[in-house]
Amino acid sequence: MTMIEAIQNAHDLAMGADPRVVIMGQDVGYFGGVFRCTAGLQKKYGRTRCFDAPISESGIVGAAIGMAAYGLKPCVEIQFADYMYPAYDQIVSEAARLRYRSAGEYTCPLVIRMPTGGGIYGAQTHSQSPEALFTHVSGLKTVIPSTPADAKGLLLAAIDDPDPVIFLEPKRLYNGPFDGHHDRPVTSWKKHDGGEVPEEDYRIPLGQAAVRREGSALSIVTYGTMVHVCLAAVEEAGVDAEVIDLRTLLPLDRPTVMQSVQKTGRCIVAHEATLTCGFGAELTALIQKACFYHLEAPVERVAGWDTPYPHASEWDYFPGPQRVIDAINRVMEA
After folding, report:
1. Same fold for the domain at 3-173 and the one at 210-333?
2. Fold held by 3-173
3. Which of 11, 126, 228, 271 is the catalytic position?
4. Which of 24, 180, 262, 284 would give a disulfide with 232, using CB separation of 3.0 to 4.6 Å?
5. Residues 56-89: tens digit of each pLDDT
6. Is 228 a catalytic residue?
7. 171-216 pLDDT, tens per residue?
């Protein structure tokens, strides 16, 4: 399956197993979503289970919070992560705090799906990576898959979760697998065969990272599209690096990260989002504190530029393999 197909399959399984699961958002019904992640679900389950909403992100999320408080399990699609800002107050002030402000009387089993990152020349309003805006908020969980199999298992786990989950889907991986070797869009937006995805219903626990490559020379901690870029960079550099795919940013799998860095003594943190105050800054601070006496070199960060998202130079903005290789060389030579 592609990641799109895996997400659609996860929705299908969840809706078939639990009548409380509903899908809402812009164009998710008859049209099946702008990226087709909900294709066929309205026809199969009806308009009361999968339905379109007005172009009002604040209204969509606000209504979903009420539905969740009253016992449903809504899955909301925001067409692009860039569109979530009108709903940010609902997410932060209502969804994230409902369990706490009601002393546990109410929970908010809500999933908010958003395509994130660049890769389609969508410019500043269709290409942002806002994960740090959610990881800063207590009460939210934040998930970013890097493979179709993970997307399915993590989404099913998110739907089961009694608290709100932000589910960010890297657009460059939708029709993957993405070839991380390229610094230019060679095949990243064409349809591929995807990856192996089990047909059955399964869960990947939130807060459990995956070691995509074992190594002893240095640790690379990353997530989403950058997992594939980092694997490509390691292959090109010929270094014995361990590549960790966080999968869930919050809750963070701290033991896997810290054990790896304590073993290797060197670390690179990589993400597509802007460098300053990105999630990599928090990772770097945690690693510096927990692994200080094991580190042989400063922790390196590889990230996007500190600029408004460029349009014409999108693929220069992305941290490609060469920028990761440059960081590898700096860390290994320190």
Report:
1. yes
2. Rossmann fold (3.40.50)
3. 126
4. 180
5. 999 999 999 999 999 999 999 999 999 999 999 9
6. no
7. 999 987 566 665 554 443 344 456 899 999 999 999 999 999 999 9
